[in-house]
Structure formats: structure tokens, C-alpha cells
Amino acid sequence: MVRRVGAVLWRCALALLLGVQLAATAQPAAPAGNAAPLRFGILPLGGAFESRNDWEPLLADLSRAIGRPVSVLSVTSYEALEQAIQRNEVDMAFLSGKMALDAVTLHRMTVVAQVTRHDGLPGYRALLLTRKAGPFNSLRDLLAAPERWRMARGESRSVSGFIVPQLQLFLPNHIVMETRFRSELVGTHQVTALAVANGEADVATNNTADFERFRLQFPAEADRLQVIWESELIPHAQIVMRRDYSRDFQKKVQDFLVDYARGKGQRGEAERATLKSLHDLAGFLAAGNSSLLPAAKLSYQLARQSAMTSQWVNEAARQARLQRIESSYAEQVAALRDNPP
Q1: Which residues fall within 8 angstroms of residue 20, CB to CB, at 6 or more apart?
Q2: What is the mean pLDDT of residues 175-188?
Q3: How far apart are CA 102 and CA 83, in angstroms?
Q4: Environment class of residue 337 by beta-carbon count within 10 Å: exposed (0-12), middle (13-18) or buried (19+)?
Q5: pTM for the whole thing?
Q6: What's the DSSP call for residue 118?
Q7: What is the number of other CB atoms lying within 10 angstroms of the CB of residue 18?
Q8: What DSSP character marks residue 174?
Q9: H helices within 121-197, ranges in order?
Q10: Alpha carbons 186 and 209: distance in angstroms, whole number
């Protein structure tokens, strides 16, 4: 049984409710000229309300830099943001791996920048969390009898909340996350961590960046948790824009992002404080579509691993599926390397 939960505690429920209302009536971050607003979509890492508040100072600065309004679309799920992109309701967005890959390969968007963090690492890691005083304390116990435990995980588009744990841990141990656990709760990283901390789930997917943030926001709940597994490094998220915009405008936005928080004086300090509160970001690097090659490889590996472990009517059907996966991956890699405008 899968439960899709907006929040675990009243604090999360209130944040999500307000976030949905605000997202539906998003206003320009600053009155800049008569141009149509640049519509910015935010990947839901915490609550929608919280994410919107975190991004608004930077987007207000962006609005002033490009001379046009910037409106904010902050949603409660990956699916909601994906649908908004499909309906052409998003011009620019902060996206991770799979969603950024789909935006570029399916929805005429292009990468303009990639985020960096203060730890200097080129990525972050997926985690599995359990309670320190929970029913089991080791990864071995979890893998030995997954049907005994309640799972809290991210949506299927979440790299650290689903794709990487499925690929690097569960499928190699012949466990399909969606079907082997006693129950499932699907939500944001904040929701999954709270679910385990409050006894509503036994194990949760998460990641190093969001768990650091969780420790600051919910110290008492975080103290109840422990990490029992870490993944390999996952590349940081990207900023994507619609390819319909001119190269000059894309370059203007890219230059703003790359230069942001690198100056001296009060302005530089204020911008660095903005990024610090924004998921502890250090800044942005100029990037193109080729920065999504690691995400394409992860998606390919997951599809291939799933095909290898699934049941098929015969071996010919399995091989046909594997051939389609190989062909699709080759096309994706070629497109990303060409880095079309």
C-alpha cells in the first residue's frame, strides 16, 4: 500500500498547504519593465512554502539584473513540476538529474548552470536513515527481510530518494523498492525523515545535503536518526532554461548566476548569505547539456538493471527490451554531447 503524504507533522502540512496556494498565485519577484515574467520552477526539496521563501531573494536579484519580472512556481511534488514543464508553464527551473534530463531531451530546455556547495565536492550522496532505537540497526537486517519494514522514499523522479538507492543497493540485492516492503510512504526528503523519526516508517531514503538541512530545522527529530547506507557521489542539480530564449538572453542569465555571490563588500556578503540559506549553496558554475551525461548514465543503468531482474515471457522479449534501452541511451548521449542551442 502506497501512501502519498503532504506532511507528517502539522508544521509540514501547513507549509505545504500555503505553498500550494502561493504557487497558484505566484507574483513577479520585482516590477521590472513591461516584459512577460520569467517563470521559475522550484524542485520541491522541503515544503513548497519554505522553498519559495528560500528562492525569492535570489530571484528578486535576477529580476533586477535582467530587467524583467520573475514569477515563482513552487510545488509540492516532482510530478506537479513535471506537468507544469510539459504544459509550458515554466521558463526556467532548478532541477536535479532525471528531471533535468527529461526537461532537456523531451521539453526543449537547456542547461545554463550547475550549483556548487561549500564542501567543495562535485556532488552529494543518497542516504538510508533509520531510528537509533528502531526495530533494526544494520543494513544487513533491512536487506534480510524487507517485507517486515515500512519504507519512506522519494518520488520515482528523485535521484537520491529513489533512483540511486534502487540502482546501487536494492536491485543488486534482488529487492524492488515499490513491491517488497510492508508499506510505502512517498514524499519529500523532509517528509521521509520525519516519518522515520516519529515512528511512522522504519527506513527512509534521503541525501547528505537535505539531511544537513534537516538537522538544523528539526534537531530533536534528527538526533533520533542514524545513517546505515551511503551511495556513491551524485552530481549536483542544474539550472535549465527554455531553448526558445535567445542565446544572448541565456548568456545574460548564465552570467548573473556565475557572478552571483562572488563580489566583495556588502552586496557580495548579502548574496553569499542568500545562497547559504538556499540549501547551503556556494554558487553556480557555467554548464551545458553535457553536464547531464552522469544523469543519463544513471537512468540507463537503472533501466538495464530493472530489465535484467524483471520477469519476462521469454528471453527474446528481455533482449528486445535491452536493445531498446541501449539504443535510447546512445541517442541521449549523442544529443547531450551535441549540446544543441
Answers
A1: 48, 75, 76
A2: 93
A3: 12
A4: exposed
A5: 0.80
A6: T
A7: 17
A8: T
A9: 139-144, 164-165, 177-180, 189-197
A10: 19
